């Protein structure tokens, strides 16, 4: 009987250990990204270097191609985290959503688009856009609003000085320009550099350099998710922070090699030039903390574009505690 007792206890102990081991399984986090771009290099670097795995997180990444589709995926439960323009959280809040999308980690801090001309304008002046056809981005999205913001600063009347096209789907804009639509187009990297290499167009200006700091692309989750498991999002932000610091402290060549697997159809030299452009204009946020000053700039840009439904307070849609804790623990 004594031996049987010890045997049962041993089996029970093994069962407990086995049960404990099962709780160590990685947390699966489904991330929906609005597009695939070198603009998001710190995130891809964190993935490539295994930083999320170190935080016991398994990331399932899906590209949803457009802010509306990305936010729909988040709100419907198709994704746990959305990587998308911060303006989308304001649109959702304006609809009095019961479970709003909350920005918890910043990824980029400038606009990520470049002005590409069909011809090489070595002595470019913004007035060269007058009487031209400008292939812009989706109405109400951050690229288009920043584009309009910059053009207005350059005293360009969007209704009278040029023809603005906004009827092309986000994912089809590059192919539309390549097919002959527009004299100028607003593009992210690596598409802009690819067009240069192929002789389709020439990068002549940066909207990010012209518009200044703004919380352009952020990671967000539904408020209920953040409240349910805040530690998960702190760990997520810690992994991201490691990637952000890595990008800041290494060469564009090293970063390009690191993220190459996320751009299988893009040559390494294009990735290098793309990373260099973004680093030169300080597009990559060095940490996940969103600032209230940049948030107010975002509201100003949206208001200037006539797309701001309400000046939603910073504290209503931004959770800085998660980023701060991640930085403290990961520093």
Structure description:
There is one protein chain. The protein is of the alpha/beta class. The chain folds into 2 domains: 27-110 and 215-330, D-Maltodextrin-Binding Protein, domain 2 (3-Layer(aba) Sandwich), CATH 3.40.190; 113-211, Periplasmic binding protein-like II (D-Maltodextrin-Binding Protein, domain 2, 3-Layer(aba) Sandwich), CATH 3.40.190.10. The chain contains 16 helices and 10 strands. A 5-stranded mixed beta sheet has the order 2-1-3-10-4, with helices on both faces. Helix 2 (41-48) packs across helix 11 (230-248), helix 2 packs across helix 12 (252-259) and helix 8 (191-198) packs across helix 13. The protein is globular. The model is unreliable at 1-22 (pLDDT under 50). Keywords: Signal. Residues 41-250 form the SsuA/THI5-like domain. It comes from Shouchella xiaoxiensis.
User: What is the average of the pLDDT values?
Assistant: 92
Task: Give the CA-CA distance, first to last residue.
Answer: 56 Å
Order of helices and strands: HEHHEHEHEEEHEHEHEHEHHHHHHH
CATH architecture of the largest domain: 3-Layer(aba) Sandwich
Tell me the strand order in the biggest sheet.
2-1-3-10-4
Q: Specify the overall morphology.
A: globular
Subcellular location: Periplasm
Keywords: Signal
Family: Belongs to the bacterial solute-binding protein SsuA/TauA family.
InterPro entries: SsuA/THI5 (IPR015168)
């Amino acid at each position: 009987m004594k031996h049987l007792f010890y045997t049962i206890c041993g089996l029970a102990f093994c069962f407990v250990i086995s049960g404990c081991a099962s709780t160590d399984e990685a947390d699966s986090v489904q991330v929906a990204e609005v597009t695939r771009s070198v603009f998001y290099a710190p995130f891809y670097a964190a993935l490539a270097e295994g930083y999320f795995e170190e935080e016991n997180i398994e990331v399932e990444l899906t590209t949803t191609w457009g802010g509306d589709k990305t936010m729909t995926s988040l709100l419907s439960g198709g994704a746990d985290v959305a990587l998308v323009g911060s303006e989308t959280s304001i649109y959702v809040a304006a609809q009095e959503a019961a479970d709003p999308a909350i920005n918890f980690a910043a990824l980029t801090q400038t606009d990520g688009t470049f002005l590409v001309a069909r011809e090489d304008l070595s002595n470019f002046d913004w007035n060269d856009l007058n009487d031209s056809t400008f292939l812009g981005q989706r109405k109400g999205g951050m690229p288009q609003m920043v584009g309009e913001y910059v053009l207005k600063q350059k005293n360009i009347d969007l209704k009278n000085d040029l023809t603005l096209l906004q009827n092309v789907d986000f994912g089809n804009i590059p192919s539309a320009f390549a097919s002959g639509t527009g004299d100028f187009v607003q593009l992210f990297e690596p598409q802009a550099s690819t067009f240069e290499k192929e002789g389709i167009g020439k990068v002549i200006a940066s909207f990010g350099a012209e518009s200044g700091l703004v919380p352009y692309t952020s990671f967000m989750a539904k408020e209920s998710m953040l409240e349910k498991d805040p530690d998960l999002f702190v760990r997520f932000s810690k992994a991201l922070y490691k990637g952000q610091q890595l990008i800041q402290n290494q060469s564009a060549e090293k970063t390009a090699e690191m993220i190459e697997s996320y751009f299988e159809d893009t040559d390494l030299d294009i990735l290098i030039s793309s990373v260099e452009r973004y680093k030169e204009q300080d597009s990559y946020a060095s940490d996940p903390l969103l600032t209230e000053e940049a948030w107010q700039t975002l509201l100003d840009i949206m208001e200037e574009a006539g797309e701001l439904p309400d000046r939603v307070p910073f504290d209503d849609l931004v959770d800085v505690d998660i980023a701060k804790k991640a930085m403290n623990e990961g520093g």
